[in-house]
Predict the structure.
Amino acid sequence: MKTDKKNIRHLSLSELEDYFNHIGEKKFRTKQVYEWLWLKHAHSFEAMTNISKELRALLSDTFTLPALSVDATQYSEDGTVKSRFKTFDGHLVEGVLIPTEDRRTACVSSQIGCSLSCKFCATGYMERERNLDFDEIYDEVVLINQQSERIYEKKLTNIVFMGMGEPLLNYKNVLKAIEKISSPDGLGMSARRITVSTAGVAKMIKQLGDDKVRFKLALSLHAANDQKRHEIMPINDTNNIKSLIEALNYFYKQTENEITLEYILFHDFNDSLKDAEELVKIYRQVPADLVNIIEYNPIDNAAFEKPDDVTVEKFMKFLEKNKVNARLRKSRGKDIDAACGQLANKVGH
């Protein structure tokens, strides 16, 4: 259903003020409505109860207020919660709440599907339908935060852009969403508690540096030489490891923000000591605080397997011996396909 009505959340505060001024409404209406949209998370004009019925009707006639809704939810034995969200135009996208002792992290998506076709990731086998708008990304965080408060009686502590899609290919919306999430007018969350994970778009990593962003950056490396990386991540053709090392150094020079390298271990592919040695070489060339070694989570379409515990231990010990700050990240939510690389809208009801 096409409409020429504008999404009210796409208006800036001053544009909203101009509108109320134009229709002869008092100035304080702007603040009231803006609070409903961003602080009180109203998902309809009807919900704006301290505004007259007439004005609510006028707003409804003039603007749209599309919002995400929870379409289905799954609960893992380990406390992880996966939600499938529905957009106003009927698309589905997933987000995950990951609780630990001291953190509650929202893993959010930035696109519906993905165009990068990484061979080990379920989302990579889907078409990219469209980018999520900044207000839709904001809704994901709001809805996951509400789940956290309901289930764990505590707010979110961290946000990671590690869900469906490549955040740096939806650059403007991701940055605008983070601006809203960290604004006192929105969720008031520190940008330092937000991590954006990229498959490696060198040009856009540099752009993040130029934009002096305050959030953390994670690079999905997953192979420590170009030949292997090209096999599993086609984006490496245009963004090879050398260009990514250069981009990460540029980003750090501009922002001094924390950088993490992500590395999934695949059985007999990138788990040998020679692979570990190549990873050490890359680590020494970038200002990374941490290397996250990740358990591989099997998906239907890919033939990869995870290595056995002995291989993982040898790999970790080699990194430790070479003074790499590495951490083995255990997967959460595997029993509901909510773990790293498993998001593909396979939610049961």
